[in-house]
Design goal:
The protein is built from eleven helices and no strands. It has 277 residues and is mainly α.
C-alpha cells in the first residue's frame, strides 16, 4: 500500500454514483485481474460452502458425467453402456429431469445459469426446467439476500459475524448478474431465438431474473455506501467493486477515485496495525 494516499476529509459530501448504470454496465465487462477480480472470486468461494439442493445436484451430475467420460471408449459396449450410465451419472440425470429441485440460495441460481451456459441447451427441456426453478426461487421472495444472511442480522457463511456483509453480497450479486448477461448473450446468438417459442420463453425468464438481481444490487449497494470498512478483507471487497465501477464509466469518476483513495488509506492503516488479512 502507498502511504502517500490520503483520504478525503471527514464529513466531505461526495456526489452519488449512479448505481444501476455503473453496476449494470459492469455486468457486460470481463472480470479484471488483481483486486478487481477479488470480490467475485471470494464470493464464489463463500457461496460454495453453502448447501443448495439444485447446486448440489448439478455438481453431482457434472462430476458423475466426468466419471463416465473417463471410461476408455473400448471398455464401453452396447451390452454394458446402460449399466455404466446407471453406475455414474444416470441417477443424478434422472433426478434433474424428473424432480428438478428448487434452489434455496443464490448459489443455486448461479449454478443453474452456469449449467445452462455450459450445456448450451436451451432447446433441452431439462435446462429450461433448471432456469425456471432458479427464477421461482427469486419469485418466492427468498431472493439472494438470504444466501449469506439477512442484512439486518448479518451472519458470515462460515458462522462468523461481520459488519460489512453487504459488501460480500454485492460481489456475489454482481457475479450472478454477469452470469445472467452471458446466458442472455449466448441465447440471442442462436439462429432460432427470433422465432422459436422455447428460446423466447427462456429469454423472458432470464430478462426477469436480470431485472430482479439488479433490484437486489440497488438495495445492497445502499447498505454498502453507508458502511465503513473494519478489516482489510472488507476494504478489498469494496475496493474491487469501486475499481470495476470506475472502469465501467460511472457518472462521477472523481467520486470513485476519492472513494478508492479513502479505502486504500484504510486498508494501509489496517495492515500497519495488524488487521486481519
Amino acid at each position: 500500500m502507498s502511504e502517500n494516499i490520503t483520504a478525503p476529509a471527514d464529513g466531505l459530501a461526495l456526489p452519488k454514483l449512479n448505481r444501476r448504470a455503473a453496476l449494470g454496465a459492469l455486468a457486460t465487462l470481463p472480470a479484471m485481474a488483481g483486486a478487481t477480480a477479488l470480490p467475485v472470486a471470494l464470493a464464489a468461494t463463500a457461496a460454495a460452502t453453502i448447501s443448495d439442493p439444485l447446486a448440489d445436484l448439478l455438481a453431482e451430475l457434472i462430476a458423475r458425467r466426468a466419471e463416465f467420460r473417463a471410461i476408455p471408449s473400448e471398455m464401453i459396449t452396447e451390452d454394458n453402456e446402460e449399466d455404466l450410465i446407471k453406475a455414474t451419472y444416470g441417477p443424478a440425470s434422472d433426478r434433474l429431469w424428473n424432480e428438478t429441485p428448487q434452489p434455496t440460495t443464490l448459489r443455486g441460481v448461479a449454478e443453474a445459469m452456469r449449467y445452462a451456459i455450459e450445456e448450451d441447451a436451451f432447446i433441452d427441456y431439462g435446462a429450461e426446467k433448471v432456469i425456471k426453478a432458479a427464477l421461482a426461487f427469486l419469485d418466492s421472495g427468498g431472493g439472494p439476500m438470504n444466501d449469506l444472511g439477512s442484512i439486518r442480522r448479518p451472519v458470515h457463511p462460515l458462522g462468523f459475524e461481520t459488519k460489512n456483509l453487504p459488501i460480500e453480497q454485492l460481489a456475489a450479486l454482481v457475479d450472478a448478474l454477469q452470469t445472467v448477461s452471458d446466458v442472455l448473450g449466448a441465447l440471442r446468438e442462436q439462429p432460432r431465438f427470433a422465432g422459436d417459442s422455447t428460446y423466447n420463453q427462456a429469454g423472458r425468464l432470464l430478462e426477469d431474473l436480470h431485472d430482479q438481481i439488479n433490484c437486489e444490487i440497488d438495495d445492497v449497494w445502499g447498505e454498502v455506501e453507508g458502511r465503513s470498512v473494519a478489516t482489510v478483507d472488507e476494504a478489498e471487497w469494496k475496493f474491487g467493486i469501486l475499481v470495476r465501477q470506475y472502469s465501467s464509466g460511472c457518472d462521477n469518476p472523481a467520486n470513485a477515485i476519492a472513494e478508492m483513495a479513502k479505502l486504500a488509506a484504510e486498508m494501509d492503516w489496517q495492515v500497519r496495525k495488524g488487521g486481519a488479512a
